[in-house]
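Q: Here's a chain of 218 amino acids. Please give me its 3D structure as C-alpha cells.
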Amino acid sequence: MSTESPGDGRRRGGEPRARGELSETVRNKLIDSRLTPNAISLTGLVGNVIAAVLVWQEYFFLAGVAFILGSVMDTLDGRYSRMSGKGTPFGAFLDSTLDRIEEGIVLTAVAWYFSTQGDDLAVAAVVVAVLFSLMVSYTRARAEALGIECKVGIASRAIRVVILSVGLLFAKGAGLGDFELLAPAVYVLAVLTVFTTFQRIFHVRRQMAGAARSAPSV
C-alpha cells in the first residue's frame, strides 16, 4: 500500500516547475538589465589581469582561483550574448581578441616566475605554449574564412584553461599538498598546442584536397 499523500506528488511535480519559473524570471531580469556581453568579457579580462599579478607575487593558489573565475566569464559572455540577443559582430570580435590577450597575460607572468627561478627550459616552454596557443586559434579562424570548419584538435581553449588552472592551483607553495605541477602543466601545454596546430593544418589540407577532387571538371 502506498503511503504517499496526494500533496507529495504535487510537491514533487511543483518543484521542477518552480525552479523553471525562477530560472525564467532570472533570465528575463538579466535580459532587461543593462548588462551587456562586452561587460562580461571585460570582467573576464580584469580577472585574468588579477591572476597575472598574483602569479607575479607568487600567490599561486589565489592566481588559479582568479584565472578560473576570469575564464568562466569568457564562457558566459558568449552564452549570454546568444540568450539575450544583445550580441554584436564587434562583441564577438572583442571576445575572441580578449581571450588571446588574457591567456598571454597569465602565461607571461608564469614565464617571469620561471625566469626568476633560473628555469630556462620552462621559460622556453611557456614561449612555445603562447605562440602555438595563438596558432591554434589562428588556424581555426583562417580555415573558417576559407569556408572550412576547423574545430579539430586536443588543445581547445577549454582544455588549455583546465591544464593551466591545475598547474597554478598545484604550484609550489600554493597550499594544496607538496605537489609542483606548474612546470609540468606548461610542458603539457607546449606539446599539446604544437600538436593541435599541426592537426588543424593537416585537417584543412585534407578538406581542401577532398573538395578539389570532388569538384566537377570543366
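Q: Can you summarize the key feature?
A: The two ends are 79 Å apart (CA to CA).
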